[in-house]
C-alpha cells in the first residue's frame, strides 16, 4: 500500500503543458480536483497567473478587462487564466494579445459548456484543447494500489485520503451539484441529483434514455440535456459503438462511463468493494476505461469504441482499430470468458485480441492473449497496441 506521505510529493503528470504552449495557446479543461492548478504551479513557475476564483482578481478584471493588457509586459511569454468560463468576455482581449504580442495563453476550466453555449470567442485555430484526467496508473508508478484506486478513485486529493468516503461525498455535493447550480447549467438540482444516481447505476452500460428518464422521474429530453452537462463537464464520457464488423451486425448505440471509479462507487451508494465481488469487477472495468480514455486523450488518439453484435457477443473496448480488449477481474480465465473476443476474431479485422484480468501469467489461448492488468497497462503506455 502506498505511503500516505506520497500525498505531499509532486507526482509528475504525463500532460506536458509547457511543450503544448511552445506550439500555441491552449484550453485545458478537466473536472474539479484533477490537479490543473497544481500542475500549473509546478510547470509554469514564472508565468503570471490570473485565478478567477479569487474574488479580487475577478472583480478587477470584470470591472476593467483592459487591466490584463496593461499588466502584461514584453517578458511575459506564457500567461495563465484559471477558470476562464467565469469571465468569458476576456477571450476577445486574449485573442488580441495572441495576435499583437504573440503571448501564449493557458486557459483552464472545468467545462467549455458555458463558453460554447454562450457563443463566446473560442479563438478559432489559435488554440489547442486538452483535457486533464485524474491520476493514471503510469503516473503513480510505485504509489499505485488497485484496491485504493477502485474505492477511493484517482482524483489527486482523494486517492490517498484518510477519509475517502467523506471526501468523495463532499466532492459529489460541492462540485457535481452546487457548482452545476452556480454555473446555471440546470435549475432543478433535486431532479439532477436523482439523475446522477441513476446515471451512475448505468455506468458501463448502453444508454437507454427512456429507462433512465423513468427511473429518474424526468422527461426523456431532460435526461438527454443532463447527459450533455455530464459530457461537457467531463464527468462522463460516451463510448461509441464499433460497427465495422461484417459477419455479425453490430449494435450502434453508445455506452456511458463516469470519469472516476471512486465517484462512480459513491454515486451508486456502495460501500468499499472487495476483490471477488461483482461490484469490484464493475469498478475494475471502469478503471481500465479511465486508463484507455486518458491514454487516448494524452496521445491524440480519437478511436476508442466497444463492440456488441445483435446476437449478443460483446467486447469491452476496441482501441485505434487495432486492438480488442475484454476486461475481467477474475484470477482464473476459462473458455466462457473468451466468447466475445473469439467471435470478433473471426472477422480478422484487428491485430490484437486481449483479455485483461488479474491472472499473473501471460498466456495464449486460440489467438487471444490473456495477461495481467499491470502488464497490459505498461504495454499500453509504451505504445504497443496502436
Question: Which terms would index this structure?
Answer:
globular; six-stranded mixed sheet; 17% strand; 386 residues; alpha/beta; disordered N terminus; five-stranded parallel sheet; 2 domains; Rossmann fold
Shape: globular
Strand arrangement within the widest β-sheet reads 9-10-11-12-14-13
Percent of residues in beta strands? Answer: 15-25%
Helical region count? Answer: 17
pLDDT < 50 stretches: 1-7
Mean pLDDT: 91
Structural class: alpha/beta
Evaluate the radius of gyration. 22 Å
The helical percent reads: 40-55%
Number of domains: 2
Largest sheet: 6 strands, mixed
Distance between the termini: 32 Å
Question: What is the total tally of β strands?
Answer: 14
Describe this structure in words.
The chain is an alpha/beta fold and 386 residues long. The chain has 2 domains: 4-131, P-loop containing nucleotide triphosphate hydrolases (Rossmann fold), CATH 3.40.50.300; 137-381, no CATH class. The chain is built from 17 helices and 14 strands. Helix 8 (146-152) crosses helix 14. It starts with 16 loop residues before the first helix and ends in a 5-residue tail after the last helix.
